[in-house]
Specification:
Layout: H1 2-25, H2 41-56, E1 59-70, H3 75-90, E2 94-99, E3 102-110, H4 113-123, E4 131-138
Antiparallel strand pairs: 1-3, 1-4, 2-3
Amino acid sequence: MHKKIIIVLTGLMLGGFGLFAQQQDSIPAVPDYSSIYHGDARIDSVLRLNYMQNTKYPTISGYRIQIYKGTGNNALNKALDVQNKFEQRYKIKAYVTFNEPYYRVRVGDFRSRLDAIRFLNRIKNRYPLAWEIKDQIRFSK
């Protein structure tokens, strides 16, 4: 009986190490900050943790401007057209989303509502029905 318990525990431990090894392979390569920062090693470890966190969760709470919302047979084509024209004109990323039954085009990645409103005032003549909305935004590069 005692030998069976030891065998089972050994098997569980070896299986656990196998899972840990597989999990380590899925972590993205973290840049080496030591070439740009020379100082306390703890800061390097904090930078590495920050990089890993941002890789795992690439969005934060912020604001976008919604410039189109439509439904129907041609709504997707219209949304893609609005997206392309906007990106060509303003050189700002536009995102097409679908939440049944509407296709939406939202633009920008604004960290504050004030930044979103400033941009909204710039485009209000071309997009009179546009408005700012709280959304998950991407980190700027």
